[in-house]
Amino acid sequence: MKLNRILLKLSGESLAGRDGYGIDPVRLEHYAREIKEANSTGVQMGIVMGGGNIYRGLQGAGSGINRVQGDYMGMLATLINSMAMQSSLENLGIRTEILSGLPVDPVAGSMSSRRAIECLEDKKLVIMAGGTGRPFFTTDTTAALRALEINADALLKGTRVDGIYTSDPEKDKEATKFDTLSFDEAIDRNLKIMDGTAFTLCRENNLPVIVFDMNTKGNLLNIIKGKSVGTMVR
Predict the structure, then answer these.
(1) How far apart are CA 88 and CA 98, in angstroms?
(2) What is the arithmetic mean of pLDDT over 209-233?
(3) Across the strands, what pairs with 231?
(4) Taking 80 as the threshold, does the pLDDT of residue 10 lie above it?
């Protein structure tokens, strides 16, 4: 499958340091260099960052913070990660633009499909922060929505696991990896690829999802080059 425009989703947890929170500068630079290599091919790329390394909205249930406030705090966490990624990419000479679903002028422009596509066609890498701008939606759902808004050819979900397995490979040594899956197969097997809303958006709009290990050097570039990496759901 030829990829001319993609949406890359990175979890906040993947940026966390050894203590499981904050931003690990080594990991951040690794991701930025991987993205730079992929960007050098000419592919148009949007990025959605999670915020779990800083704050997860669902934490509010046990901390006295209500769900709505907690989700807005999570959106702000995605903005912090997005600003860190922007800085790291621009240090490598990559032109970037942050667009946010949550109004945060002057830190970022307002997210709109038209503005994002204009930036992509101007050869800028677009980082889409601030979630959907509304509570009760995850960054997986944000990524699916933004991928559809920019007419992406695929949604790439970078994780620390090299694809989708029959069960959690970190807990089950007998787990086997899928190279490809249909959306229906994933539902029938009850595979937790992303939250239900995000998965439904991808399924109903025929948006392929590629789950891969972002921590392995060269994986992102190989996907752009059309090589088989991770697991594709379509």
Answers:
(1) 13
(2) 96
(3) 211
(4) yes
Q: Is CATH 3.40.1160.10 the right assignment for the domain spanning 5-233?
A: yes
φ, ψ of residue 81 in degrees (nearest 5): -65, -35
Residue found under tokens 């500068």? 25
- What is the pLDDT at residue 62? 59
Count of beta carbons in the 10 Å neighbourhood of residue 23: 18
Convert the pLDDT of each residue in 104-128 to its tens digit.
988 899 999 999 999 999 999 999 9
Task: Please report the DSSP string for 68-81 in residue order.
Answer: HHHHHHHHHHHHHH
In this structure, which long-range contacts are made by residues 133-137, counting pairs with CB atoms below 8 Å and at least 24 apart in sequence? 133/75, 133/100, 133/101, 133/102, 133/103, 134/101, 135/57, 135/67, 135/68, 135/71, 135/72, 136/67, 136/68, 136/71, 137/71, 137/197
Q: Where are the domains of the chain?
A: 5-233
- Model confidence, pTM: 0.93
